[in-house]
Amino acid sequence: MTLSRLGGSLDNAFGAVALGVSIGSLFWGLLTGAALTALVAAYASTLVFIKIIGGLYLLWLGFRAFRSAACPRPIETRDHLGPQSAFPFFMRGLIAQMTNPKAALAWIALMSLGLQADPPWWVIAVIIAGTTFLSVVGHLLYALAFSTERIVLIYRRARRSIDLALGTFFCFAGIKLLTSRT
Prior knowledge:
By secondary structure, this protein is mainly α. The chain has helices spanning 9-42, 46-70, 87-98, 101-114, 121-145, 149-179. It is a multi-pass membrane protein.
C-alpha cells in the first residue's frame, strides 16, 4: 500500500491495478459462466456437487476471516515508486487475478448461488455484468481510499471488526448454499 502521492502517477498505478483485477474478474466470470452452464446442461446433477464445493469454499473463507480477526497483527504499508506507465500496473492486477485460485473458486461459489438446473443465458449475463460492475467500482474505490494515509489508519483500527463481519457473511452464505434445495 502506498502512503505518499507522486503527482498523479500513484493514483494511476492504483487505478490500473484495480482495473486489471476487475478485468481478470470479468474473464473468470465468463469462463465460469460458460463452463458451469455447459456442465449443468450436460449433467444436471453436477449442480449439487458444484454447490457443495462452493458452500465449503465459503465456509473456508469464513474460517480464514475469523482466524484473521483473532490475530492482532498490524498491516504493513510501504511507499511504492514504480514505473510511470499504468500498463505494467494493469498487467500486475490482471495476472494476480487470473493466477489466483481463490478467484476461480469464488466465481464457482457465486455462480452456484445464481444458477438453477437449466439457466437462461440472460441470468448468467446479469450475474457477470453486475459483478463486473461491482468489481470495477469496488476496486477503484479501494484504490482511491487506500492511497490515503487516513483511510489506512482507520482500517488498521477496524480490521478485526471487518474480518469478523466478513467471516459471519461468508459462513452464512456457505451454510445457505449448502442447505439450499435447488
